[in-house]
Specification:
The chain is of the alpha/beta class and 388 residues long. The protein has helices at residues 26-38, 48-68, 81-92, 107-118, 136-140, 165-174, 259-275, 277-295, 325-336, 348-354, 372-387, and strands at 2-5, 8-11, 13-14, 75-78, 98-102, 122-126, 147-153, 178-182, 201-205, 217-221, 301-304, 315-320, 338-339, 362-365. A hairpin with a 2-residue loop joins strand 1 and strand 2 (8-11).
Length: 388
Amino acid sequence: SLSLKGSREVFMIYFDSAATSYYRPESVALAVAEAVRHMGNSSRGLHGASLDASRTIYEVREKLGNMFGCGTSQIVFTSNVTESLNTVLCGLLRPGDHAVTTVLEHNSVLRPLYRLEQQGVELSAAGCDALGNVSAQDIESLFQKNTRAVVCTHASNLTGNLTDIREIGRLAHERGILMIVDGAQTAGVFPVDLVKDHVDVFCFTGHKSLLGPQGTGGMAVRQGLLIAPLKTGGSGIKTFDRGQPEQMPERLEAGTLNGHGIAGLGAGIDYIRSQGMEKLRQKEQCLADMFYKGVREIPGVTLYGDFTKEERAPIVSLNIKEMRSGEVSCWLTEEYGICTRSGGHCAPLMHEAFGTKEQGMVRFSFSSFNTREQTEKAVEAVREIAES
């Protein structure tokens, strides 16, 4: 892709995949277009167009169930991970309950929790070390008799640091505490299994590493866990019941689903399966590591996160001297055609922990569609800005 700056062409290099995928397989667009042309409303008729929608949506549920280690009926579709988190938190926590979270969290976790706190839910947040890591033991130390749930991100959208959800989940389940995971940065690139990882609800979005369209997302829910619906309305079944159907997934899916987007999401999952999740993850991590090693010795560059661990989300956040992150990000775009994310990244507690509330950070996030050549250009751009 290219844009025009003055009289010269500037080719766009996209390093903002933690916000949304820009590079997607062509099959995703084709699947959406095909669905728009032929798909009716799932569960709202017995004609071919409606049945085509039902089959497509069921098949994508099946693919996601295989990916997350749960049954097809335990995959619930939402519009994004924010809706998923709101649904599960508001559907499980009640006044008098206690919830444990971390300073790593995105506002998609924090704001629903803060609202619930105003309604009588007690809240505790585990801190992080100097590199932005949160330990399972620190989370465990916050457990109380009335602790109902642990809510934590699988990977920080600011540093890329992973949390040990398996160990946290194990400790939570020993106490009968629910484990809820925000998988916005890991779904489609890191393996997750509800049973093996001791997870009760894994919330995901479709438009990031799953390579689907925006407006898609959902949650994988442990068998037997009942979540009160956030919304009620049409379900296509049990029309004469006054309440939302009890059965899953209709219990949590009121209204018409984004069938066109879900069809595209299915194509994104097919691409991941054809390429191999591990292969895609290794490429992304390799590019992120290459960028990190290229900028870490540049005078004036400050990096955030723990880069001693090989397994991490492909994110590198930095600042250059005392420059505001927005200024750096604009410079990268206007002079080099490099797309990054600046500012607060919807992660306020992490910025408070790092002391970057005013400056923000410049985040580079990598996709398997990026190249070594693009990464080298990004390193050189950072070097030139730091030296200017």
